[in-house]
Amino acid sequence: MAEQETTRVHLVRHGEVFNPRGVLYGRLPGYSLSDLGRAMAERVGEALGDRDIVDVAASPLERAQETARPLADRLGLGIGTDPRVIEAGNRFEGKTFGVGDGSLKRPEVWPLLVDPFRPSWGEAYVEIAARMRAAVADARARARGHEAVLVSHQLPVWTARSSYEGRKLYHDPRRRQCSLASVTTLVWKGDRLVAVEYAEPAADLVPAKAGFGA
């Protein structure tokens, strides 16, 4: 029997964002990479630039497109835009989030926090998983026998990984293994998912107290 072809889809989280106000920016426009974030994007390009990548796509948000650019330029590829890998919808967009000066001190937002298993404050985990898996399936089809890249955001990447690995989608955000500019790789032999790999090509650039948002 002939050996089955190997296909890899790399789920890349974008680099650090310029966010001096410290808000949850979510899907808001205008949030681009910081200087450090651009350095992280270059690291992603260096880490993946010699691989057999034939397709690069990214979330429509600026920070994802900017993270994809160094890699796409190295490979001589265009960047496709896939709205299915956009950040999760969140009712706290544009606000700070915390007990002190953040939104949590305001009673009017407390009803949003009643169901962390869905979650009640934003897009349901099952919906995130479904759209991410659909985007991955299309990327895998475009790159069959080769490799593809999807540049996305922390929660969608982690939710997709949890779905593929058969874990509950509800989780403690502090326990996500999805650092800035990280690469989560799904590996198929034929149509069988055989491995999930993880790498942090910009690990030494990540601030010690980097947040778990977007």
Automatic annotation (TrEMBL):
<dbReference type="Pfam" id="PF00300">
    <property type="entry name" value="His_Phos_1"/>
</dbReference>
<dbReference type="InterPro" id="IPR050275">
    <property type="entry name" value="PGM_Phosphatase"/>
</dbReference>
<dbReference type="InterPro" id="IPR029033">
    <property type="entry name" value="His_PPase_superfam"/>
</dbReference>
<dbReference type="InterPro" id="IPR013078">
    <property type="entry name" value="His_Pase_superF_clade-1"/>
</dbReference>
<protein>
    <submittedName>
        <fullName>Histidine phosphatase family protein</fullName>
    </submittedName>
</protein>
